[in-house]
């Protein structure tokens, strides 16, 4: 494990975009962890007397509010800092849910094949036939709001890509000599899958899951923007975008800074994902 870690550190120093993405992502994670210490104000505390104050460097701004305030007088910087927690929690946890379901079904479909494979892949086709955002909206409408519901909904609608990827990897591995040898000596299917097949799909899963975190963050923002995600008094970047959209023409900072936060986070994750793909895929090395 230590050798893999050292190899990763050595490799990432050769990728400028990967190193930059990882550095930015680590900073964002640290900010989210230390949010109560970094944020100067309560993100949900409203004060109508200080509403729509411009950023500190703009005309009419004040150093008291670095990025200004929103329509209810809430400090935007404090809200962005606390909102990072929601975006990262939803991103990582939703991918974990999707990955667990997708890997399990992909391993079963690819290893056993026949009618089991046919049934699972028909379910995959059915999910692909309906727009993902429509699935999410339907589930959110039925199950209600909340971060737990949001994680479940995004996770349960995102497993398809993992299933297809894992299945294709298993199909190429299950007939290799060492897998056949394990069957000949009487190894159980569960042992073969765990020790001989699973290690061959982990690298692809890591790459796809890393790239999927950015997509999940955008999905969370979209649902919150549509009023189906995280709602006040909880703070999310998507909710901040929704609150500030009507002020874009007059008070641009209300929606602009949450949008920038989403963009930077997603780009950082994409850069890290690209680096992981190049590092873990021997065909690209």
CATH class: Mainly Alpha
Q: List SSEs in N-to-C order.
A: HHHHHHHHHHHH
> What number of domains?
1
Cα-to-Cα separation, first versus last residue:
20 Å
Oligomer: single chain
Tell me the structural class: mainly alpha
Give the tally of β-strands: 0
Largest sheet: none
- Estimate the mean pLDDT confidence: 83
Strand content: under 5%
Total DSSP helices:
12
The whole-angstrom Rg is 22 Å
Assign an overall shape. Answer: elongated
Pfam family, one: OppC_N
Keywords: Cell membrane, Membrane, Transmembrane, Transmembrane helix, Transport
Membrane topology: Multi-pass membrane protein
Organism: Paenibacillus algorifonticola
Give me the secondary-structure topology.
Layout (H helix, E strand, L loop, with lengths): L1 H11 L3 H18 L1 H4 L37 H37 L1 H16 L2 H12 L3 H10 L3 H14 L3 H8 L4 H37 L11 H8 L8 H28 L5
Helix pairs in contact: 2-4, 2-12, 4-5, 4-7, 4-8, 4-10, 6-7, 8-10, 9-10, 10-11, 10-12, 11-12
């Amino acid at each position: 494990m230590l050798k893999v870690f050292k190899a990763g550190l050595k490799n990432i120093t050769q990728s400028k975009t990967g190193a930059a993405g990882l550095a930015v992502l680590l900073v964002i994670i640290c900010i989210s962890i230390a949010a109560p210490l970094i944020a100067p104000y309560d993100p949900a505390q409203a004060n109508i007397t200080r509403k729509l104050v411009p950023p500190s460097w703009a005309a009419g701004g004040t150093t008291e509010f670095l990025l200004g305030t929103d329509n209810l007088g809430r400090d935007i910087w404090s809200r962005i800092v606390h909102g990072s927690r929601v975006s990262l929690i939803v991103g990582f946890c939703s991918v974990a849910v999707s990955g667990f379901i997708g890997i399990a079904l992909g391993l079963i479909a690819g290893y056993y094949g026949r009618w089991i494979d046919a049934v699972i892949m028909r379910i995959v086709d059915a999910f692909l036939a309906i727009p993902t955002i429509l699935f999410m909206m339907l589930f959110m409408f039925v199950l209600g709001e909340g971060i737990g519901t949001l994680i479940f909904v995004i996770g349960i609608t995102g497993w398809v890509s993992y299933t297809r990827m894992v299945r294709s990897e298993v199909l190429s591995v299950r007939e290799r000599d060492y897998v056949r040898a394990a069957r000949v000596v009487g190894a159980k299917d569960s042992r073969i899958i765990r020790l001989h097949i699973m290690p061959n799909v982990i690298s692809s899963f890591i790459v796809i899951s890393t790239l999927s975190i950015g997509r999940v963050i955008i999905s969370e923002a979209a649902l919150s923007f549509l009023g189906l995600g995280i709602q006040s008094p909880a703070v999310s970047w998507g909710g901040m975008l929704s609150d500030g959209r009507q002020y874009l023409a007059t008070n641009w900072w209300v929606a602009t800074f949450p949008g920038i936060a989403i963009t930077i986070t997603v780009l950082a994750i994409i850069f890290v994902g690209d680096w992981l793909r190049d590092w873990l895929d021997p065909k690209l090395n």
